[in-house]
Amino acid sequence: MKDTLATEKIEDIEIRLLLEALYSRYHYDFRNYAMASIKRRLRQARQQLGFASISAMQESLLHDAAMLPRILGYLTVQVSEMFRDPTYFQAIREKVVPHLRTYPSLKVWIAGCSGGEELYSFVILFREEGLEERTLFYATDINQDALRAAEAGIFGLDRMQLFTENHRKSGGKSSLSEYYQAAYGRVSFDKSLRRKVVFSDHSLVTDAVFAEMHLISCRNVLIYFDRTAQDRAVGLFKDSLARKGFLGLGSKESLRFSQHAGSFADFLREEKIYQRRGE
Questions:
Q1: Distance of CA 26 to the CA centre of its chain
Q2: At what angle do helices 117-128 and 160-169 cross, to 10 degrees?
Q3: Which of 25-39, 46-60, 167-181, 200-214 has the lowest mean pLDDT?
Q4: Which 3 state secondary structure label does DSSP give 155?
Q5: What are the φ/ψ torsions at residue 209 (nearest 5 degrees)?
Q6: What are the residues facing 218 on neighbouring strands?
Q7: The predicted structure's pLDDT at residue 79
Q8: Residue 2: band (very low, low, confident or very high) from pLDDT cuts 50, 70, 90
């Protein structure tokens, strides 16, 4: 029992040192991510990358820049789907879009865009609602590989049945197949969907506000942060949103315990959609 506790304590030290090295060497800050999640992912990385210890993985990370994207692939979550939680997108379509129509131009930020599934969902929704031409979309992530995948817009054909059903349930006004071409077991989404998109690396933990937004969608990202990082991210969203702008979070996320909660009103509580107060 004592040996097990000692081993876990040493591992915790190794993890903290690796996260410090990652920040000092490459300026990626995972120090305020939820430790249980970080520990699970780094254990998986150590095993699958063939390192004897977390310390050995840290040494490789410090001396071999090629190791960075491989480790980032484990530390960042890249699991999503188009029109995930269709009622969320239905609420955006039916309740939020009418407010957005009142603006002559719009800026939408998909924070933590992963492989682009949510981004393409929003662009398609805005095209169907006639808002695409007046909208600039910002798709950000800390993972460069994820950003490249999002910009490519290529997904496995086996995922299209789920994506198509989600799109239909969200109130889609067309067939999802109108927006992509299929070949060799993959689909490629039309380049026109990226015409109004800016792809950029951005960290919610360390980076600053870069534009005034009318809608921010950041879903299933905050659950991987500790309370300090969550508060910083929500503060960033608050400072980024125009008065009366909208913020959408994931189904397991909430502003309830944030020090910035008073700056938001519940717009659609059941869908975790909030509105920046107008003061």
A1: 20
A2: 40
A3: 25-39
A4: strand
A5: -65, 140
A6: 249
A7: 65
A8: low
> What is the average per-residue pLDDT within 131-139?
98
Residues of the chain above pLDDT 90, percent: 79
Work out the end-to-end distance of the chain between its first and last CA atoms, rounded to an integer number of angstroms. Answer: 57
Give the 3-state secondary structure of the chain. Answer: CHHHHHHHHHHHHHHHHHHHHHHHHHCCCCCCECHHHHHHHHHHHHHHHCCCCHHHHHHHHHHCCCHHHHHHHHHCCCCCCCCCCHHHHHHHHHHHHHHHCCCCCEEEEEECCCCCHHHHHHHHHHHHCCCHHHEEEEEEECCHHHHHHHHHCEEEHHHHHHHHHHHHHCCCCCCHHHHEEEECCEEEECHHHHCCEEEEECCCCCCCCCCCEEEEEECCCHHHECHHHHHHHHHHHHHHEEEEEEEEECCCCCCCCCCCHHHEEEEEHHHCEEEECCC
Tokens 């254990």, located at residue: 43
Query: Is the pLDDT assigned to residue 33 strictly greater than 90?
Result: no
Distance (Å, whole) CA 96 – CA 167: 17
CA atoms within 13 A on the CB side of 219: 24
Residue matched to tokens 């309740």: 95
Sole residue written with tokens 């009142």: 102
